[in-house]
Structure formats: structure tokens, C-alpha cells
Amino acid sequence: MRIPIQSVTPASGTAEVIGWVHEMRDLGGLAFFLIRDRTGIIQVTVPKKKAPEAVLAAVKAVSRESVVRVAGTVKAMEKAPGGRELIPDTFEILSMSESPLPLDVVEKVPAELDTRLDARFLDARRPRVAAVFQIRSAAMHAITGFFERAGFTNITTPKIVAAATEGGTELFPIAYFDKEAFLNQSPQLYKQMMMAAGFEKVYEIGPIFRAEEHNTTKHLNEATSIDIEVSFADHNDVMKILEDLIVETYAHVRNTCGTQLANLEITDFEVPKAPFPRLPYAEAIGIAQKKIAEPIRYGDDIGTTAEKAIGEEMGGHYFIVDWPTEIRPYYAMPYEDDPSICRAFDLMHPRMELSSGAQRVHEHDLLVKQITKKGLNPENFEFYLRPFRYGMPPHAGWGLGAERLIQTMLDLGNVREAVLFPRDMHRLVP
Ligand code: ATP
Ligand code: MG
């Protein structure tokens, strides 16, 4: 019976392991192999004079990264990984790997990201790459648990839609029988409609599609959005939920992913402390004006350079609040006493934006007015506006990019490293 490599000790006496040929070395009289599975690495030592014929034949034929089943005697061996080695009675090749490998799994030769993504199945055999996705899994587990404990209902909304959430051109058109349709850029309108349905607290974790022709280290054309919407809540209430969620997710990763963090050589993993500072948009612009050469004025979007400069100044996670109404989507609620600014916020990591949110407009006529002001036709939004005429509670929410969360948490250079099979302008396969 196969045992995980991690559990093999000299006390095992005999053992059978199945794994990949990590490395191999032939020293004439002795052949050495390192066999790797998900749990660890073991040395297999073949004394050529004493080994059975079948073992010698397999050892001669096998290539790196082939899958082998090896059974034999376990002996203590100080110099070998884990302080033991396996002397095989049988050595069977279950699946032979082609040579040369498109990618060096042992990482002696660092590979370009494109080469890695083309051979993702090999790339992810490396513990430091697998670690990213194990941590992503743990983080998503923490996030789901957080919402479930807080009484949120998990919803699933359509990804094939007839209208853009915010207008604009960032949509992928698709062939949908005889109609014009698109891949959804955000669950925004649907999660708001569920507030009219009385669901009160909803969350959705699902794909969003953006046809942006960006080639940056933080944009994907298919991303994962963690979305919430909460009734009888304002922007401050949902900012609190967001910072609590970030803290809890980091803490969960720190507490459960020690091995993975070590594989990533992260020794100073810090859990951020809530509450995060609230920086008014006007002040953020002021910081940017002092620190960057590019001209930036009140009313401008905060671009990548400004974002970085402000982030440097802030040093940790922070919110940008009190945005000009004009540069936020129509569904953001303006302040009553100064409608030129609104109850919108962005959650920022020093490196980039992680989340956008707001208290929403829940009053039908104001919403129509704001849609029109953005140059959009309210008739195209009738399915969305209708619920606002039959009792829509005040509500607020946000969308948080899962990939950017992992990218910033693990200090990955490129957001593509946080996706198994990223989609970008040039990447549709694998
Ligand atoms: P940016 O200005 O950085 O392009 P955005 O303001 O267009 O982002 P939102 O529409 O506010 O993005 O989406 C909410 C969150 O979803 C973002 O803060 C980000 O974390 C994530 N997100 C949005 N678009 C992308 C994308 N193309 N790739 C990766 N994540 C994204
Ligand atoms: Mg945003």
C-alpha cells in the first residue's frame, strides 16, 4: 500500500511510495533518485550489484518527472532528505515523462512567466508555486466562513447579460442565439436587486469579465470577484465588514499556511490591523500632487503612479473615501449636505486598489437622474430600476478582487501568478 512520502521513516521497515522523479544521479556502482509527492521528498538508493534485474532496467530507462512506484526497505541515512533512504525491491515506471522538459521543475533554471504559464501543470509541481494556490484556497475558505458566520446568503447571478453594468466599452460581446449579449463585468445590479427581494445580506464569489486592453501586472480579462451587498447599511458599515474580513483572512493564512509561507520564503507575514485609516479623496490628491511629477487635479481618477505614491505615504491598507460623485458610478449615493461628493470608497493596499464600494442610491428617481447624467439610457436598465419602485431598502456593498488580494498578500510581482490559467489579451490557451 502506498504511503505519503512525508510519513516514511526508518521505523516503517518497508514502504511503497508513488511520486515523480525529482532528480537522478548515477555514480557508477550506485544510482540515486529523489522521488517527490505532494507531501515531501525521499531518496531512493540503488546498489547496482545487488539490485534485481527489473529494478536495474527501470532505473536505466526512467527520465526526470516520470511517475514511478518504488517499494523496498527503509534505512536511516543521515545525509538524505528526512534522514532516511529507500532501497528498492521493485521500481516501476507508471508514466514516462518526455525529455527535455519544457520547464525545470527543480528550478535550477528560472523560467519566464510565459513559459511557466504555458506549462502550468509542470510549473505547479514546484512547491513555491503550489503554495500560492494552497494559500488562495485557504484564504477563500476563510472568506466563505466569515460570510457564513455573519449570516450572509450565498447567491449566484448570471454571467450572460444583456446590458453593461456601468456602460462603457469594457465588455466581451458573445453570440447568444439571435440577441446581443455580453459576459458580465460585475454582479452589481443583480446583487442590488436581491436587496429588493429582502435577502438583506448576500455574497457572491464568481468570475467577472473585463475587455480592457490593458497589459499591466494587476489587470486580468477574467478575474474573481468577492462581492457583498447589505441592506439597512451605509458605506461605513460595509467598510467595517471589509476590513474585518481582510484581517481575518490574513490571520487564517498565517495560522494555517506556515509550510506554504515558508515555501514562498515569506518570513515576515504580517496581519494588518483594523481599523484602516480613512483618507478623504481630496487629501489623497494632495499627497499625489506633492509626490508625483504627472499633473493631477481634484476630479481626476487616481492612476497607477498616484496610487503608488499615496500608498508609500500610507504604508499599509487604507480606505480612500468621499469621492467626487462625478467620477463614481451612478449607483453611488451622494452626500445630502454636499452632493458633489458621495458615499463611495476604495480599499487600497499600498501597491494597488483592492476593492470598490459604496452606499447605493436606493431612491428610484434619483437613480434615473444619475443614470441619465452619465449619458446612459435608463430604458436599458429597466430590469434593474423596476425593483426600486416596489420597496427598495437602503443598502451598501463592495466588490473585492480575489487575485489582487492574493497578489498583494504574497507580494507577487504579477497578478497572473495568482491565477492558475490567466486570461489576458494574448492568453486564451491553456
Ligand atoms: P482598476 O481601476 O484598478 O482597473 P476598477 O476600479 O476598474 O479597477 P472595479 O470595477 O472597482 O475595478 O472592481 C472592483 C475590484 O475588482 C477591483 O478593486 C479589483 O480588485 C477587482 N478587479 C476589477 N477589474 C479587475 C481586473 N481587470 N483584473 C483583476 N482584478 C480586477
Ligand atoms: Mg474600482
Q: Structural class of the helix and strand makeup?
A: alpha+beta
The backbone outline, from C-alpha atoms, is elongated
* Spatial strand arrangement across the major sheet: 6-10-11-16-15-14-13-12
What binds here, in terms of ligands, is: adenosine-5'-triphosphate, magnesium ion
Describe the largest sheet: 8 strands, mixed
Instruction: Please give the alpha-carbon distance between the first and last residues.
Output: 35 Å
Instruction: Give the proportion of residues in helices.
Output: 25-40%
Strand content: 25-35%
SSE series: EEEHEEHHHEEEEHEEHHEHHEEEHHEH
Radius of gyration: 27 Å
Kindly list the characteristics that best describe this protein:
430 residues; alpha+beta; OB fold (Dihydrolipoamide Acetyltransferase, E2P); BirA Bifunctional Protein, domain 2; 2 domains; eight-stranded mixed beta sheet; 12 helices; 29% helix; elongated; binds magnesium ion
Summarize the structure.
This protein has 430 residues and is an alpha+beta fold.
Task: Describe it.
The chain is α+β, with helices and mostly antiparallel strands and 430 residues long. It folds into two domains: 5-95, Nucleic acid-binding proteins (OB fold (Dihydrolipoamide Acetyltransferase, E2P), Beta Barrel), CATH 2.40.50; 122-276 and 316-418, BirA Bifunctional Protein, domain 2 (2-Layer Sandwich), CATH 3.30.930. It is 29% helix and 27% strand. It has twelve helices and 16 strands. An eight-stranded mixed beta sheet has the order 6-10-11-16-15-14-13-12, with helices on both faces. Helix 4 crosses helix 6 and helix 8 (281-291) crosses helix 9 (304-314). It starts with 13 loop residues before the first strand and ends in a 21-residue tail after the last helix. It binds adenosine-5'-triphosphate and magnesium ion (MG).
